[in-house]
Amino acid sequence: MMALGLQVSAIAITELPSLSEPIHDLIVVGGGPAGFMAAITAAEAGLGSVLLLEATSEPLTKVRLSGGGRCNVTHACWDPHDLVTYYPRGTRPLRGPFSRFATGDAVAWFAERGMDLVEEPDGRMFPEANCSSAVVDCLRNTASAAGVICQLQANVQAVDHNKSGGFTVRCRGGSCLHAQRVLLATGGHPSGRRLAVGLGHQLVPPVPSLFTLALDAPALAVCSGLAVDDVQLMLNAGGERFKQTGRVLLTHWGISGPATLRLTAFAARALHADRYRGELIVNWTRYASRQDAQDCLGELRRRQARRTLGAARPFPEMPRRLWLALLDQVGAKSDQRWADCPAALERRLLEALVASRYLIRGRGPFGEEFVTAGGVALGEVNLATMESRVCSGLHLVGELLDVDGLTGGFNFQHCWTSGWLAGHAIAKSLNSSNRCCQKH
Q1: Cβ pair 361, 388 in contact under 8 A
Q2: Do 167 and 179 touch, CB atoms closer than 8 A?
Q3: Contact (CB, 8 A) for 3 and 203
Q4: Alpha-carbon distance 430 to 235, whole Å?
Q5: How crowded is the C-beta side of 383, counted as CA atoms within 13 Å?
Q6: E strands present in 192-337
Q7: 8 Å CB contact between 306 and 281
Q8: For a FRET experiment, which of 44, 190, 372, 438 has its CA 20 to 30 Å from that of 246?
Q9: Helix (H, G, I), strand (E, B) or coil at 338
């Protein structure tokens, strides 16, 4: 994997704190979904001193804002083998974690804490209250009941690994905190990546994922606002070929919608390498075979020869605005009769229907990317415990890792899974260590 040009000569190491300074069992840096899940799980598993540090004045901001204020908590994909296919970065590595804590476990976890989830027809799952504040309240109330201390506006500047184990967490303003274990759950924020690098980790360079595409397609401008189902998209980028089929949304700048977001998620690195330029090939029909589409076009021409191109379109499910735009795209007149349509024009129409080619001018104009691809390389983390292989006692979870999922609750599911695994592993290790110390 590629790594950022951020290098450290050695992991920062400090002396152990004095006996008068309190030592927490666990300090969680980052008050997002993964951080809260880890802190709660560790505290409920028996850790007596769990401190969660959040740099802002309001934790769980991403949870509160997600899904238009509804919070898409997870997705009704119950089989871990299917679930991993929704993660462009992490498909194979996540098989193990999801075999231990997946969608069903997350649904049960929230239900046990008083918040039921409701499945929508497309598989997305939202709180029964249909409001993200229900998720925020559930997490905050559960953390408080478990004894987790949440400290807001605690901006962590550095994390030092002590010589004989344990960590010193240095916050803005000069305060220092001490813990046996530290967990980084800072999401995609650069500060968390900087902390990880300071503790010896290498980073896969972060690039945008899940974004719309700006196209050079003037004929499609009249279709802005149209949603079209079962559209087949193909993209060549970075020497690779990417395909997706599904619903697309046509906009005044290009193309959006679920199929577009899935396409750009899997092609995120290739598109970045090509500076978001390339060619998008679109099959607007529901036919995978060019011959089937050609037969349909020929049959229409025979049956409705006296009707005009604009009045009789070959695929009834295709929005009329899109059909007229494709006629304009190939230079056909909508008032021309099918009987008078030259063979050359029919061939151009077929090409426009099954393989329209549009130049990509870049990402959509409003910064629609929801997540980033990149972060701490998965090879540097034990995914069974989320513990660093580089720095003993350090755990990393959530979007800080080089894992990103498609829209629909998949990114939150990874947060619940990684946080739960880390919290259990930390509690198990420290509880075992404490019992050994008591025996001696």
Answers
A1: no
A2: yes
A3: yes
A4: 49
A5: 23
A6: 203-209, 213-216, 227-237, 240-250, 254-256, 278-283
A7: no
A8: 372
A9: helix
CB 98 within 8 A of CB 84: yes
Cβ distance 209 to 404 under 8 Å?
yes
> Measured between alpha carbons, how far is 229 from 244 in angstroms, rounded to an integer?
12
pTM: 0.88
Cα–Cα dist 28/38, whole Å: 8
Q: What is the token pair recorded at 258?
A: 């679920």
The encoded tokens of residue 315 equal: 């695929």
Q: What are the residues facing 280 on neighbouring strands?
A: 235, 358
* Helices marked H in 240-357: 258-266, 268-273, 290-303, 320-329, 343-355
Angle between helices 290-303 and 343-355 in degrees, nearest 10: 130
Contact (Cβ atoms closer than 8 angstroms) between residue 423 and residue 37: yes
Cα torsion 319, 321, 326, 329 to 10°: value is -160
CB atoms under 10 Å from CB of 65, counted, come to: 11
Instruction: Specify the pLDDT at position 288.
Output: 86
Encoded tokens for 272:
């970045």
Is the Cα torsion angle 82, 84, 249, 270 positive or negative in sign? negative
Size (the chain), residues: 440
Please state, in angstroms and rounded to a whole number, the distance separating the CA atoms of residues 319 and 355: 17
Comparing C-alpha atoms, which of 70, 406, 346, 376 is closest to residue 197?
376
In three-state secondary structure terms, 235 is strand
- Residue spans of alpha helices (H) in 227-280: 258-266, 268-273
pLDDT, averaged per 10 consecutive residues of the chain (440 residues), comes to: 37 42 93 98 97 97 94 98 96 96 98 98 97 98 98 97 93 96 96 97 94 95 96 93 97 95 95 95 94 92 93 92 96 94 94 97 72 92 98 97 95 98 98 66
For residue 12, the model assigns a pLDDT of 38
**Confidence (pLDDT) at 238:** 85
Distance of alpha carbon 309 from alpha carbon 23, whole angstroms:
77
